[in-house]
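Incident review: delayed structure delivery

Summary: a single-chain prediction request sat in the queue longer than the usual turnaround. Root cause was a stuck worker, restarted by the on-call engineer. No data loss occurred. The affected request and its eventual output are reproduced below so the record is complete for anyone auditing the incident later.

Affected input:
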Amino acid sequence: MCGGGPIWLVGMMGAGKSSVGRVLAARLSRAFVDTDVEVERVAGCSVAEIFASEGEPAFRQRERAAVAACAASEAVVALGGGAVAEPEIAQIVGAAGTSVYLRARPETLLDRVGDAEARPLLAGLDGAGRLARVSELLSAREPAYCGARERVDTDDRSVDEVAAEVVSRLRLERAGMS
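Output delivered after worker restart:
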C-alpha cells in the first residue's frame, strides 16, 4: 500500500485523526492506535488529569514512549495534536512509515471539538478564546504538520470521504515507488 511501517495521522485536535484512523485501519486491514488513548491506558488516567497533575512535559514524555512503541508496527496511528511539533517525535515519525496531515480550518476544528473542557489547552476559555487559541496553535504547529508526506483537507467532508482520499493517495504514492 504505502511501503512498510505505520501510517501516521497528524494534525490539530478535531481534524479527524481518530475517526478517520479507525475507518482507514479497517479499510487497510491494519491495527489502529490512538496515542492519546494509549497514554491514558498506561497512565491509568486521562490526558487532562496528566496535564493537571504532572504538567505538559510529563505528558509529552509519555507521548514519546507511545509513539516509539508504534514505530516498528504496521498500524494506522492517530497522533496527538502537538506530537509532531516535538522534535523527538517528529524524528520517529519521519524515520518510519508514511505521515498524512489531516487539515481543517480553525472554525471546523472548534465545531468538532465541542465544549472542549476535556482538552487541556482549551479548557476554561470562552468561544472567542478557544478560537484564538486554536488559531494560535495551528499557526505554531503548521510547519511541523506540513512535514507530512501527504496532506488531506477534512473541512466539509465525511470521515468516509477523507479515508477514501487517504487510501487513494497512499496507493498513488506506492505506484510512484514501483
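Verification: The domain at 8-167 is CATH 3.40.50.300 (Rossmann fold).
Action items: add queue-age alerting; document worker restart procedure.
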